[in-house]
TrEMBL record:
This is Probable membrane transporter protein. InterPro entries: TM_pro_TauE-like (IPR002781), TSUP (IPR052017). Pfam families: TauE. GO terms for cellular component: plasma membrane. It is a multi-pass membrane protein. Keywords: Cell membrane, Membrane, Transmembrane, Transmembrane helix, Transport. It is found in: Cell membrane.
Length: 252
């Protein structure tokens, strides 16, 4: 099913996928929120589970550099609160992937992307700061939702960003804690793709390997661009582009 994916891609497709890899690198460098636009683009090329398994090594590569860069700014107590319920969310997403067809999986993925877009729009236009209670139930809900949405579509970024921001973490601690969280979660997803869903293959890894240099380039450019790009127009562009991509997924 997933064989010879790289051989049917045109040079225009490779350009688009390379730009997506640049975007992932930029996200890991600090251009928060832009990662979500990649998800529907990859899904439109490879389907639901195969797209997740193709993106996953690219995310982990970016995570490694994020953790190295922000290793001194990690709030471990929040990770300890989140990870148990996150594991439950990952397990729920794994079971859903087993039960659903790839087309149904794409619909669920699209739902979570749209949910994340709503969160992004709320953060962008709301004059109120969302404050979640420092309570085990709030941590559990955030962890489960983050784990589940990450498993079904690598779409946990806006959810966890909103959660960590609501904890009033300093900017650098917010970035460092998020970097370690996603690194751990993404590593935990590898056995699911390899042995349970069987969606990760030599072919998907080949595509990831070809695109990996663009992750590094995106990290370099992201560290430069984060200081000069006007944030509001940029984030609005990401929201609109992701919405259009998700609508395309729904329409097939």
């Amino acid at each position: 099913m997933y064989s010879l994916l790289s051989e049917i891609l045109s040079w225009q497709d490779w350009i688009i996928l390379s730009l997506c890899a640049l975007t992932i690198g930029g996200n890991k460098a600090g251009l928060r929120g832009i990662n979500i636009i990649v998800i529907p683009i990859f899904a439109s090329y490879f389907g639901g589970k195969a797209s997740s398994s193709t993106v996953l090594p690219l995310l982990i590569l970016g995570d490694i550099f994020s953790v190295i860069i922000y290793r001194k700014n990690i709030k471990w107590s929040y990770l300890k609160q989140l990870l148990p319920s996150t594991l439950a969310g990952l397990a729920g997403g794994m079971l859903l992937g087993q039960l659903f067809s790839d087309r149904s999986f794409i619909y669920v993925m699209s739902f979570f992307i749209l949910f994340c877009l709503i969160l992004m729009v709320y953060k962008e236009f709301s004059s109120k700061t969302l404050i979640l209670p420092d309570h085990w139930a709030a941590h559990s809900i955030a962890g489960f939702t983050g784990g589940f949405s990450s498993m079904v579509g690598n779409a946990a970024g806006p959810i966890m960003s909103l959660y960590l921001l609501s904890m009033n973490l300093p900017k650098m601690v917010f970035i460092g804690t998020g970097a370690v969280f996603f690194f751990i979660v993404n590593l935990l997803k590898i056995p699911v793709h390899l042995f349970i869903w069987k969606s990760m293959s030599l072919e998907t890894l080949k595509i990831s390997l070809i695109l990996s240099p663009f992750i590094l380039l995106g990290l370099f450019l992201g560290l430069k661009l984060v200081r000069i790009i006007p944030e509001k127009p940029f984030r609005l562009f990401i929201i609109l582009g992701t919405l259009l991509g998700t609508v395309k997924l729904f329409l097939g």
